[in-house]
Write the structure tokens for this entry.
Amino acid sequence: MAIGARCLWQQLGVKNLEADRLARDAGLDAVMDRCVKIEHARLFGGLHWAGVNTGVISAKRPV
């Protein structure tokens, strides 16, 4: 039964190597031990809004 997924996403703390292998063998992208909210903030700015201490003190957004 196909569900139309294109990626297997395993949240923080989840590292199932067998599931990763099965997903990749089926042609899916696979991500392990990552948080969607943190990755979105990292890619599009605003990690501090996501509650992550970036260690940067500035009023300017990075360019």
Q: What stands out?
A: Residues 17-25 form the longest helix (9 residues). The longest strand covers residues 7-9. Residues 7-50 form one domain.
